[in-house]
Amino acid sequence: MAGVFPRLELGRSIKAIVFASVIGVAAVTGSFNNAQARGPESLADLAEELGDAVVNISTAQRVKAKRSLQLPDVPEGSPFQEFFEEFFNGQEPEGESPQRVQSLGSGFVIDGDEGIIVTNNHVIEGADEITVNFNDGTKLSAELLGSDEKTDLAVLKVEPQSTLDSVKFGSSEVLRVGDWVMAIGNPFGLGGTVTAGIVSARNRDINSGPYDNFIQTDAAINRGNSGGPLFNMDGEVVGINTVIFSPSGGSIGIGFAIPAETATRVIAQLREFGETRRGWLGVRIQHVTDEIAESLGMDNAQGALIAGVSEDGPAKEAGIMPGDVVLTFDGREVPEMRDLPRMVATTTIGSTVPLTVLRRGEEVEIEVTLGRLDEVAEVEQVEEEQESPKDKADETVVLGLSLAKIDEPLRERFALSDEIEGVVITRVAEGSSAEDKRVRAGDVIVEVAQEPVASPKDVVDMVEALKADKRRSALLLLSNGAGELRFVAVRIEE
């Protein structure tokens, strides 16, 4: 027994040493992490270095304001009646008088030799005069080289007497949530104001446009900060401050900036052409929901579902079809629908790029040569309401849908174009999955599970086959009266 205790004591000693070492490492690591969490000790040097490249932008615009003076409604015989009549009769009648409206924003110099300045489109939109105010008190009139409403960017040019201080763009792609950032701008007309915070989130879609991909930050951004730069700790512009969420008009710590990755491409085109020139694929797309993914046999809801293909577009020529799900574009994954328009728009016009699409359960490689997006000719999709007609005795009912083969009376009844073929929906049951998915009477079922249908029996047979295959939903390709297509996954009731 005597020989056992020394080994036991030795084991305890080793454990104690290891434990102490672990505590020591943890203490050092914790101290290091706490130091990092406190952020940079001071931003003074960085702010001093960058401040002169950030400018205040003031605009002036003359608008016609209507002026109408009306006699207040006072009781007949009131002692105030004579007074008001005398006052208002001496005034000028209703008319229009021009007024000068001014607004303020921010911007920053990206080319000191050429005098090129970047700001937001909404800062200078509709302005008759644009003045750039520098930190040293210099004021220069600016010329608008070009603007883009969809990304809310504008490029200005001034004629400097000497080289201006300027800043460079950095990479917004390497930003991580939690990275420190600094904003400089002109909030509420106060002039150069520095605020700091962190990147709160990336790739934010706030439904402000088709190419939303904002950086969210808690650095204080207020009215007047629009168009100002968001810097990383290397003094590079990683974003352009443009939007805030605020019920009061002041900062509540939720601001959004256009990523440098998006801005640089647009700015280069505005400088060169005075307009944006975006790539065009020629498709109508929609979200791949969980139900649609399940009906297509996909493991995850990802990519962009092709709902329609323009007859004269690049996609049609390349062989892209309705029902295809775009999984990759030019070697990059397409996580969800909203990513594809941004990828296409920023790709060089006329370039040939590879796509991977999921078609009937198999991945297909396609090459497409992009055209140029004619933004003026873009047509807004409008969903038309259709009244639900009365059910007929000979109608087939499946999935809560009353179906009928298209004939001339039904074609006239629902204003269906002559080119549309399929099975017309004459009534949608209340409370059905189809009603929840906004399927309407007058919609035409063109395909079920990516197979064409020509009669109500075809639809029923396809749904029964899906039931036998234990599918939980049926993927319908629907057409409206104008021939516009969309996919809808309707739940199969047991």
UniProtKB/TrEMBL annotation:
SMART domains: PDZ. The keyword Hydrolase applies. SUPFAM superfamilies: PDZ domain-like, Trypsin-like serine proteases. The keyword Transferase does not apply. InterPro entries: PDZ, PDZ_6, PDZ_sf, Pept_S1C_Do, Peptidase_S1_PA, Peptidase_S1C. It is an enzyme of class 3 (hydrolase). Keywords: Hydrolase, Periplasm, Protease, Repeat, Serine protease, Signal, Stress response. It catalyses: Acts on substrates that are at least partially unfolded. The cleavage site P1 residue is normally between a pair of hydrophobic residues, such as Val-|-Val. Its main location: periplasm. It holds the Pfam family Trypsin_2. Residues 270-361, 381-481 form the PDZ domain. It is found in: Periplasm. Its EC number is 3.4.21.107. It comes from the Bacteria. PANTHER family: PERIPLASMIC SERINE ENDOPROTEASE DEGP-LIKE-RELATED, SERINE PROTEASE FAMILY S1C HTRA-RELATED. NCBIfam families: degP_htrA_DO (TIGR02037). This is Probable periplasmic serine endoprotease DegP-like. It comes from Pseudovibrio brasiliensis. The lineage of its organism: Bacteria, Pseudomonadati, Pseudomonadota, Alphaproteobacteria, Hyphomicrobiales.
